[in-house]
């Protein structure tokens, strides 16, 4: 299974210098990919611009949006951005994309929340046409979401599925559902399955990590504390989560940091990489 790490592009305290140093260090330590996530109204760095900066300071490591909220942009704008990034980092980009779930992001973008699903379908169709549509030929597309519609989109338009940051017991049954639908839909081979897991390593970042997770999920009310409690914070728990996902057939796990400290790259590499 591929082991990847996300850039802290939505974590408070992560400036541009940290992001580029993080990218270089992650490549040097042997992570498979660098990932970014997206919230428009939450402080942080734009995901596509962040990956462009990472592409400029690295040469081998993969680049993954995990995930991009597609309908915050029109289909042509998204297609051009994808094509541009794919050109800047040939063969390295994978697009994890979903329709979005938070209305405040759409209000801020001036985009209709109610129409996001139809807009997302249009985007997937355009991305599937690749170079013909100026959308970045050969860029794999991973569809996000845990719904019947998400499964249909994977089978019709995607190269695989990317899971939200939930525990393995929630992710793995849905991954199997995606695989079954893929086979029943007549697709060759198997869908690429990517899972997300948050993490923090070290007593020196515990408070920062908990504060970020609590704030990021504050929209969920009291449930935010569950996300704080379930964030893996020990080498043993991180290995346990990764091993469970690997046993369930996940192709790649992306560890998302919850603290803006460069130490997290080396600490995670020491736990998971040879």
From TrEMBL:
Luciferase-like domain: residues covered: 3-250
GO molecular function: oxidoreductase activity, acting on paired donors, with incorporation or reduction of molecular oxygen
InterPro entries the record matches: Diverse_substr_monoxygenases, Luciferase-like_dom, Luciferase-like_sf
SUPFAM superfamilies associated with the record: Bacterial luciferase-like (SSF51679)
Entry superkingdom: Bacteria
Entry protein name: Luciferase-like domain-containing protein
